[in-house]
Specification:
The chain is an all-alpha fold. It has a single domain, classed as MetI-like fold (Orthogonal Bundle), CATH 1.10.3720.10. It is built from 10 helices and no strands. The chain is globular. The protein starts with a helix and ends with a helix.
Amino acid sequence: MTISSEILGPILLSLRVSALSTLIVVPLAVGIAWVLARTANHGKSLLISLVNLPLVLPPVVTGYLLLDVLGRRGPLGGLGLAFTWWAAVAAAVVVSVPLAVWTTRVALEGVDPALENAARVLGRNEWQVFAEVTVPLARRGIAGGAVLAFARSLGEFGATIVVAGMTAGETLTIPSAVFLYMQDDSMGSAARALVWISAGISFAALLLVNATAWSAARR
């Protein structure tokens, strides 16, 4: 059985966008989560609100704001990212950061400060404590955040169509393809196939996150 280009194209593009988005989100989420978990700054509430803003903003509004930044008249307009697959990556990063930060922050807050202090007593500087103690102990939560970020990136639609469009072979991701194919009766089977594939990947991602959390809880 061969997979048509109408199905395979959006799948491959979505996987590429989600993978690159996750690579960007994970270090960003770890840094933000560390600030939230380890500092007593009065500006934390402002940072939390900014990070979580994409969760409550209408996706189309998020896309419009990104277009203001990436469009020809925006501060990053010279990069030519708008209406390319890189714009889809930008949209995926913005909407998936909150989930990764939340999961990573919980993991970092679960690290015993006594172990970090022991490393300092042994002569480790703050960066070494972070890299050699904090991150390894929080690795399951960080990995869970990465999986959630990947799954959320895979399902991003509203912001993507505004800032990236729906050009076949260039910016047509799985959700965009489903939306487009639903308007054409001859593409009904392709839309249905993409729906089930997307649901399967997302379900598998949630199973992996839950399995990781269960394994960590039993330790």
